[in-house]
Amino acid sequence: MPVSRKLVLQGAVGTLGGIAMGSVPAFAAEPPVGGGVSPKSALERLQAGNARFVSGTLTHNSLVDERRAALTGGQAPFATILSCSDSRVPPEHVFDESLGDLFVARNAGNFVTDAVLGTIEYGYAVLGVKLIVVLGHESCGAISATYDAIANEKPLPPHLDAIQRGIESGIQSVVTAHGSKDDATRANAKAQAALLASSSPVLAPAVKSGDLHIVSAVYTLADGKVTMLS
After folding, report:
1. d(Cα 176, Cα 174) in Å, to the nearest integer?
2. Residue in 149, 175, 152 with CA at minimum distance from that of residue 160
3. Of 18, 74, 84, 146, which is most buried, counting CB atoms within 10 Å of its CB?
4. Region 140-164 average pLDDT
């Protein structure tokens, strides 16, 4: 039976990547329903699922009808994924999971915005998700465009400049050092994970206490492998 939740907005004000956050949501709720999967167990499950994806031995590509019907009363995902919108990197397939298993936020460049932060806070505070993975991927168009914009000192046009603002601080040092764009992809994933862990009044205390784990990772297009970075 689904459990009702009450969300309470508290007036915490801060900044996120140089962008004013305004009122940051803090959640007052009954104990979360998210299955109680520990960060360690959740990470191990993701890694095992990705190994199946790489080997082509998928286990969650059937019984979709039954799964859909079982989830009509609520959800209990065991991991949150912040990933790129790239059509080649669908998290549920990459980690061989099914409906209701992953709480996913996606945008071009897998970077943190106010909306993304609120979504991920909801995943932890209300759904009880204790693992967050920031998943970048090689040959990322958003990273490539931002890298070139920084290197050429030519900002991206509206509305692409919003992507540049979200990514550039995390990859500036790579561009300055003339590193590769794949180096920049890794740097961005790490930077976004660090931003989540430090900027949120909901997530930061949970990370500090050990109740929540935030990691970064990168996906390789050719073989489908996810490599954990942190």
Report:
1. 5
2. 149
3. 146
4. 98
Pairing between strand 19-20 and 15-16? antiparallel
Long-range CB pairs of 7-16 (<8 Å, 24+ gap) are 7/122, 7/126, 12/201, 14/199, 14/201, 15/199, 16/112, 16/113, 16/114, 16/117, 16/195, 16/199
Residue written as token pair 């046009």 = 157
Q: How far apart are CA 58 and CA 95, in angstroms?
A: 9
Alpha-carbon distance of 153 to 220, in angstroms, equals 29
123 contacts: CB under 8 Å, gap ≥ 6: 77, 80, 103, 129, 132
Cis ω for the linkage preceding 159 (within 30 of 0): yes
**pLDDT tens digits, one per residue of 176-228:** 999 999 999 999 999 999 999 998 999 999 999 999 999 999 999 999 999 99
Closest of 133, 123, 126, 66 to residue 95, by C-alpha:
133
